[in-house]
Specification:
Elements (H helix, E strand, L loop, with lengths): L10 H28 L10 H25 L3 H30 L11 H13 L11 H36 L7
Helix pairs in contact: 1-3, 2-3, 2-5, 3-4, 3-5
Protein name: Potassium channel family protein
GO biological process, one term: monoatomic ion transmembrane transport
InterPro entries: K_chnl_dom
Length: 184
């Protein structure tokens, strides 16, 4: 049984859907960045860093699971997948930026610069994610190197598994939303 291909969207409809997708992703990213800069991360002394990071990664896993379901359910799953990726990657990066910021606040010896600002932490996180190497900021303690190594491994997972999950969800969504042929 042949299933007819999905009809292409008219240009104006596609542009509107992509525009809405990009607007939502941008708004979500702006809210996440504002939260990163405004939350009182300097006052979390006594909170287990490992537990906080694990909770953040669990929340991120929940976000990814939600995004996969949303992609499958959306009539235009590929457009929704772009939005999902545009939300998930900044959330992932900001989680690690916050982790590095809190690490440095608990012990300034974790990094070579003495005092990481939130912007320094975000810069360092993006440097690790982009695999462009280090220069001005490096992890100096064993604990910081372990967290950086964990981020590097998780970067590969985000780029590999999460993108694969989103692409699989696009295919599932396309299958679910294809027009069905009437039985003859």
């Amino acid at each position: 049984m042949d299933v007819p291909p999905i009809e292409p969207l008219p240009g104006a409809v596609r542009r509107r859907l992509v525009g809405i997708c990009l607007l939502r992703a941008t708004a979500t990213t702006v809210v996440l960045v504002l939260a990163y800069y405004l939350l009182p991360l300097d006052n979390v002394a006594g909170v287990s860093l490992a537990l906080s990071l694990a909770a953040g990664l669990a929340a991120l896993t929940g976000i990814v699971a939600y995004q996969v379901r949303a992609i499958i359910r959306h009539r235009h799953s590929a457009i929704r997948a772009v939005e999902a990726l545009a939300i998930t990657v900044p959330a992932f990066l900001l989680l690690f930026a916050a982790t590095y910021f809190v690490m440095e606040r608990s012990n300034p010896q974790h990094f070579n610069v003495g005092s990481l600002t939130r912007t320094d932490s975000l810069y360092f996180t993006v440097t690790v994610f982009a695999t462009v190497g280090f220069g001005d900021i490096t992890a100096t303690s064993q604990a910081a190197r372990m967290v950086v190594a964990a981020q590097m491994l998780l970067d590969l997972l985000v780029l590999g598994l999460v993108v694969r999950q989103f692409l699989g969800a696009v295919e599932a969504g396309r299958r679910d939303h294809r027009p069905r042929r009437e039985p003859e």
